[in-house]
Amino acid sequence: MEKVILTGDRPTGKLHLGHYIGSLRRRVLLQNEGDYKKMFVFMADVQALTDNADNPEKIRQNLVEVALDYLAAGLDPERCTLFVQSQIPELAELTTYLMNLITVSRVQRNPTVKTEIKMRNFEANIPLGFFCYPVSQAADITLFKATTVPAGEDQEPMLEVTRELVRRFNQTYSEVLVEPNILLPENATARRLPGTDGKEKMSKSLGNCIYLSDSADAVWQKVRSMYTDPDHLRVDDPGKVEGNAVFTYLDAFSTDDDFANFWPEYKNLDELKDHYRRGGLGDMKCKKFLNTVINNMLEPMRVRRHEFEQDIPEIFNILRKGNEAARETAAQTMDEVRKAMRINYFDDTELIQSLADRFAGK
């Protein structure tokens, strides 16, 4: 079986460090390693509209922002297919068919859906499109027969719904769809990067993000105010690294080379943590180092992003070509789906002939 990757993001704003460490960085590595036959990366504008239906302009404006972040991070349209969800009508068709194979109670049990509903204050009035998000996501994955989905651990419940739907479809009709596996970030600390305020998740709506496109000054302003150990009041006080956002980010992004290049007083992060725990190390020194690490990582992306920003029509051309390539694959899968479901009426010559014979009295 061909190894196929599918992954994407909702274009509701620029991408941040949580997106990068959770999935985007791994996508670029996988693309460059070339071990996968195909890679599809898409902007999930349909899913973004499920809780932004009254503000489509938000999606319109951020579509290109996300595309720029993809390209700046190193995704190459010659090596992966970049496309826009709404431009693939086969996705809507497959979503409709899959909805018949899952119950409302099963969707309600999904912990990711529960969390998202609570976060958006949808408890009293849940948009049906938003409620069906897991089915829509399953269609995204299965339409392209993805074997692998790089994502954060919060998406595992969604992937389990997809696998259940694949099994149900294949048992009901025939073996057409493929069960996907999740590919979690290698760095366990980075699987759910907290916000700069120390809250559980980095989120655009909470305003606690560092964006991939932030300037060096903007990054410093955010790092400088980052949540640390509230009991570490004086430099000499022993400090806690657990729950300390600065050290969580250092776990996610710093390398031994960063220490060699920017803070040779320490060989690695373990030595820095030991010093902080003993006391005698101020938060500001740690924040300055983290700021250097992050900006050193982001600067090449800023340069590439600026280059791509000079020709926005070409960004749309890249996406248009990606849409066309994605539709070719989507059409092939849907031909198989309709055949399995026996709703390929006009392609089924045997059906047509049998009905002709029947009505002719043969």
Structure notes:
The protein is mainly α and 362 residues long. It contains 16 helices and five strands. The chain has helices spanning 17-33, 45-49, 56-73, 89-99, 104-108, 111-119, 128-131, 133-143, 156-172, 216-224, 245-253, 256-262, 269-278, 283-309, 312-341, 349-359; strands at residues 4-9, 38-43, 81-84, 148-150, 181-183. The protein has a three-stranded parallel sheet with strand order 1-2-3. A two-stranded parallel sheet has the order 4-5. Helix 11 (245-253) crosses helix 14 (283-309). It is elongated. The chain starts with a strand and ends with a helix. The model has no long low-confidence stretch (mean pLDDT 93). Belongs to the class-I aminoacyl-tRNA synthetase family. Its EC number is 6.1.1.2. Keywords: Aminoacyl-tRNA synthetase, ATP-binding, Ligase, Nucleotide-binding, Protein biosynthesis. InterPro entries: aa-tRNA-synth_I_CS (IPR001412), aa-tRNA-synth_Ic (IPR002305), Rossmann-like_a/b/a_fold (IPR014729), Trp-tRNA-ligase (IPR002306), Trp-tRNA_synthetase (IPR050203). It is an enzyme of class 6 (ligase).
